[in-house]
Structure formats: structure tokens, C-alpha cells
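Severity: low
Component: inverse-folding endpoint
Summary: output formatting inconsistent between runs
Steps to reproduce: submit the following C-alpha cells with default settings.
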């Protein structure tokens, strides 16, 4: 005992601790410093050890004075005084090695010394401090475990609801399956028709370029014809001044010249009309290109919406992975809880066997009432703690409900947006088909006219 691994407390600190933590009722009131110093009283020390054993192992002080019934002892009355001291000694010998005291003897009970009793009591005090800390930690872990279990149940419910919602959103109902198939077929047809129309537009652009080159050549020829006409007019004026012919020949020549001028004017007007028609065709082609670009932008919006749906599926997969991890953690926690319950069951079985073997006596009424009052206070404190925990859990559930409602609103908004996009796209595609058909009819008519003219 020269080198201790625990502090040796003063007599005042030991008295205050044992009066508040170990002793109860009248024993706590009557226990003073004079019971330990200068010469400790054996009765007070023995009652302290009995109360410590009762606190730790639920072994009541009355049980120390009981003689076992299985053994045939002659004159059991002579053993009443020694049995209590020997039972306390044997149980203290089993308990004190946990407090790092290995040399406990009968003299510490029958004729205790001051320094020896103070060291033993300080060792027990250190062990009780350690026990209290560990009990608080275990209670905190149990509370956290219960809160985690409640949260896990809430998360499981939320995951099940989310899975149901995802199934509802991803699966197409049988009533709308035919419409969805029709829409998919219509989209594929639209893509093929747009490709064909792009090819036709490119061919028409090539034709327009060829017509432009022809028009440029004709415009050059018209310019040359105008120059020739001006030259001919000058020659006519010169010839009029030089040649004097009959009026009949002059009239015939003038009529021929007028017919030539009319023919030239008619050709000029026809070329102008053709130029105007080609300009209208070019404008219609540009308009169709703008509509095609709008369709392309709508298709890009559809691709972005599909990418968003893929991202949501990925988030759903991540949530399922987290759910599986939490289930594994829950299984591990359940295994640990089962082990703890088994250990507690073993301890309870041992205590019950000890209580059955020994005939228990009742304590005094005052002590029993005080124990009941202490337990009632503890139960009241536990009830308050449980009420606080229930309030926290209700707050968390309300927050989860609000999050679920916000997710539902977002999903409904996105479905409405997708439906509106689909409606606008279908309407624009119908308009585009109509316009393309009208343009094709006009172009066919123009080609027939052009072929007839040429």
C-alpha cells in the first residue's frame, strides 16, 4: 500500500461523499468524522462496507447474518455474530481487488486503523467515481442508440415513400401507355421527316443558286440588249437624216422596230417577275430554316430534361446504397444490443438464484419509503428527459414532412413543365408540317411554270 494508483482523500471528503452517495436516511445523518478519526469505530466501518456491497451487488445487510440452510450446523445461535463479519470479509475480499486493494484482512473489520481505513475507503470512492462515469456514458449511448433507431425507422419510411413516388413517376400507367407509344412513334417520324426536309432544302438551295447564276447571265444579256437598242436608235436617227425613202417603207420599218421593243420589254418584265418569285422562295426557305432552328432548340430542351431524369435516377441509387449501409449498421447495433441483453439476463439470473437461496428479510419502513421516494424522483427525472427527447423527435419528423412536401411540389411542377413543353412541341410540329406541305405545293407549281416557260 506504499505506492497507490489512486488518491487518498481526507476524512472530511470521505465523510461528505459517503453521506451523499452511499448512506441513506438516519445512517447518513448519524455518520460523522468522529466515526473515522482518531480511532475508527468497527460498527461504523462494517455498516459502510455493507452499504457499499448493497449499492454495488444489491446484497442487503440483513443477508450477511443468515446461516445457510443446507448445512447441518449444531448450535446455530453461536454462529450469528461471526457469520455477518465473515460474509462481509469474504465479499470485500472479492470486491477490493477491483479497487486495487489486495491485502484486506479481518483486522480491518474488527480493529480498524485510521490510515488503513482511509486508504480502503478512498479506493472504494475512486471506484464509485469511475462506475458513475461509466454508467453515465452507457446511459448516453443507450439514448443515442434509441434516437438512432427512431431516426432509422423514419428514414426507412421516407425511403419507402420515395421509392413509391419514383415508381409512380417512372412507370407509365396502362391508360397512357398507348399514347406514350404513339408519341414515341411520332417523334421518330418527325426526326426522319426533318432529315428528309433538310435534304430537300439543301437541294432547293442548290437550285436557287443555279437560278441566280442564270438570272445574272440574263441580266448581263439585257444590259447588252439595252446598249444595242441605244446604238440602233442612234443609227436610226442618222439614217433618217441621210436616207430619204418612201413613207410606206418608213412605216414598215418603224412597226418592226416597235415590235422588237415590245418583245424586249415583255422579256424584261418576265425576268423581273421571275426574280421576285425567286426572292420570295429564298425568304420562305429562310423562314423554314428559322422554324427548324426552333425545333432544334426544343429538342435540346428535351435532352436536358432527360439528363435531369438520369441525374435523379443516380441520386436514387445513391440513396439506396446509403439505405443498405444503414441497414447493416442497424444489424450490428441489434447484435450488440442482444449481447448486452444476454449479459444482463445472466446477471439477473445469478441475482435471482442468490435471492432464492437466501431468505430475504424486509428493511425498516422508513428506509423503504425513502428508497421509494428516491426511485420516484429518478423516474420523474427520466420522464422529463424522455419528454424532451420526444419533443426533439417530433421536431425532426415535422422537418422531414416539410422536406417531403417540398419534394412533392417540385415533382409536380416539373411534370407540368414537361407537359407544357410537349404540348408546345406537338403544336409547333403540326404547324411546321402544314407549312412544309404548303411550300412543297407552291414549289411544285413554280417548277411547272418555269418548265413551261423554258
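Observed output (run 2 of 3):
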Amino acid at each position: 500500500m506504499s505506492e497507490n494508483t489512486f488518491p487518498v482523500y481526507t476524512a472530511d471528503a470521505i465523510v461528505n461523499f459517503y453521506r451523499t452517495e452511499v448512506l441513506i436516511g438516519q445512517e447518513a445523518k448519524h455518520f460523522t468524522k468522529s466515526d473515522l478519526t482518531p480511532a475508527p469505530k468497527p460498527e461504523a466501518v462494517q455498516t459502510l462496507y455493507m452499504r457499499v456491497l448493497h449499492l454495488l451487488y444489491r446484497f442487503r445487510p440483513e443477508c450477511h447474518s443468515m446461516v445457510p440452510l443446507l448445512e447441518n450446523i449444531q448450535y446455530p445461535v453461536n454462529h450469528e455474530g461471526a457469520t455477518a463479519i465473515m460474509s462481509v470479509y469474504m465479499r470485500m475480499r472479492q470486491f477490493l481487488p477491483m479497487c486495487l486493494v489486495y491485502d484486506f484482512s479481518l483486522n480491518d473489520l474488527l480493529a480498524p486503523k485510521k490510515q488503513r481505513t482511509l486508504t480502503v475507503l478512498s479506493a472504494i470512492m475512486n471506484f464509485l467515481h469511475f462506475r458513475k462515469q461509466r454508467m453515465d456514458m452507457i446511459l448516453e449511448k443507450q439514448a443515442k442508440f434509441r434516437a438512432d433507431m427512431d431516426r432509422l425507422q423514419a428514414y426507412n419510411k421516407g425511403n419507402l415513400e420515395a421509392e413509391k413516388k419514383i415508381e409512380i413517376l417512372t412507370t407509365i400507367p396502362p391508360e397512357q401507355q398507348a399514347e406514350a407509344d404513339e408519341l414515341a412513334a411520332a417523334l421518330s417520324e418527325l426526326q426522319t421527316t426533318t432529315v428528309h426536309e433538310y435534304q430537300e432544302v439543301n437541294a432547293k438551295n442548290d437550285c436557287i443558286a443555279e437560278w441566280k447564276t442564270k438570272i445574272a447571265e440574263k441580266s448581263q444579256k439585257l444590259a447588252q440588249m439595252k446598249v444595242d437598242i441605244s446604238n440602233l436608235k442612234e443609227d436610226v436617227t442618222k439614217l433618217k437624216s441621210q436616207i430619204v425613202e418612201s413613207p410606206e417603207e418608213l412605216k414598215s420599218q418603224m412597226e418592226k422596230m416597235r415590235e422588237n421593243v415590245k418583245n424586249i420589254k415583255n422579256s424584261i418584265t418576265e425576268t423581273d417577275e421571275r426574280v421576285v418569285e425567286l426572292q420570295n422562295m429564298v425568304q420562305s426557305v429562310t423562314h423554314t430554316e428559322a422554324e427548324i432552328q426552333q425545333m432544334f432548340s426544343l429538342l435540346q430542351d428535351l435532352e436536358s430534361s432527360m439528363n435531369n431524369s438520369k441525374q435523379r435516377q443516380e441520386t436514387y441509387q445513391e440513396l439506396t446504397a446509403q439505405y443498405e449501409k444503414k441497414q447493416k449498421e442497424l444489424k450490428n447495433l441489434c447484435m450488440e444490443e442482444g449481447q448486452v441483453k444476454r449479459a444482463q439476463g445472466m446477471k439477473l439470473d445469478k441475482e435471482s438464484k442468490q435471492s432464492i437461496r437466501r431468505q430475504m428479510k424486509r428493511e425498516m419502513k422508513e428506509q423503504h419509503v425513502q428508497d421509494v421516494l428516491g426511485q420516484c424522483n429518478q423516474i420523474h427525472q427520466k420522464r422529463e428527459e424522455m419528454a424532451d427527447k420526444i419533443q426533439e423527435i417530433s421536431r425532426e419528423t415535422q422537418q422531414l414532412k416539410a422536406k417531403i412536401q417540398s419534394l412533392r411540389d417540385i415533382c409536380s411542377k416539373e411534370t407540368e413543365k414537361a407537359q407544357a413543353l410537349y404540348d408546345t412541341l406537338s403544336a409547333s410540329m403540326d404547324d411546321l408540317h402544314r407549312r412544309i406541305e404548303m411550300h412543297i405545293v407552291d414549289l411544285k407549281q413554280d417548277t411547272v411554270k418555269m418548265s413551261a416557260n423554258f
